[in-house]
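Archive transcription. Copying these from loose printouts into the bound notebook so they stop getting lost. Printout 1 of 2:
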Amino acid sequence: PGGIVVFGHGPAPMVLRRGDLRWLVVKALAHLLALAPLATLLLAAWQQSLGADPVAELTHRTGDWALRLLLASLAMTPLRLLTGRPWPIRFRRLLGLYAFFYASLHLAVYVVLDLQGFWSQIFDDILKRPFITVGFTAWLLLLPLAFTSTKGWMKRLGRRWAQLHKAVYAIAVLAVLH
């Protein structure tokens, strides 16, 4: 009644107002769109259509999507300012976490498929190849941001949380350089 949808039974059913249901649908679509590149990659791998060097293709595509999503997350604040609406900020964390997800896939493809887990080669590459040093540094800096992206960590860290998360600008520069 009155535009309210109730899910579940018992003492704490989930209640969504009409506007909340709309945001739930929009957020679900955002998740699907963020996962679409992964589905495309998996399908291409299944169909063996990644080209002559599939490992290089996986490495490049996961890295490209990490960068795209990182830049999209950074674009949410200017978009909010341009539109005068608060809704873009609701997607900033989601996009940032997917950027970390794709950056982690990018690193995993490189370590597992390209270097086949040869740790001595990994450390040599980090030390000797500047673009790998820069990329690995960007990923290391993303790690605490992903870890502290929950509301609980925001509360625990207080204003230090915002200071920590300003590292995303340095990360974006490093990611572009990589």
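Printout 2 of 2:
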Amino acid sequence: MRRTGGGRRRGGGWRRWVATALVSGGWLLGAPSPAWSLQGGPAARPAADVVLVMVAHPDDWQLFLGDVVVEALARGERVVAVVASAGGDDRPEAFWRAREAGALASTEAALALARVPTSPGAVTCRPVSFAGPRPGTGSTPVLCERPGGRMATVFLRLPDGRGDGSGFAGTGRQSLLRLEQGKIPRIDPVDGGGGYRSTGAVAEAVAIRS
């Protein structure tokens, strides 16, 4: 699994690093590094089994990492996009579900741009249970992909934390930043699919999911 800057991280250091990325709203894993410039072409970078792209909202990787995703797919790598937030602010469920639908449509576009042959069948989504090692970390993120598995999207559906991390009233001012700061005891997905008592628990779910 490749991350920004190359190399790998394992164990507790890996989970802490992912947690930091989530809290900062970053889209860190899978981004190019100075040592592995995209201008150098496929031969300039060794292939990884999985490129993990982390974003705050369903339309972020398309805006900021679209070239990274398409080039990774073209090199024959598997791409997993982890979307932390439902991105709905205080809007109704129909809003964030529409954003998810748009995100999935864009994965089809990325596969086409990368000239990846796709298997017959539509994109399917399923909840994936995660029983964390600590009490209260059970959750059910949603994993979406088409047959063949070249690109998958994991929706954590956490509440949108607002630009400053203060959260929205409609979701009880929940945000990853406030969870990290100890201002809230847990953060719960907007679809009611379980919750997390720490950003480390979120990171563990991301690591196992991908």
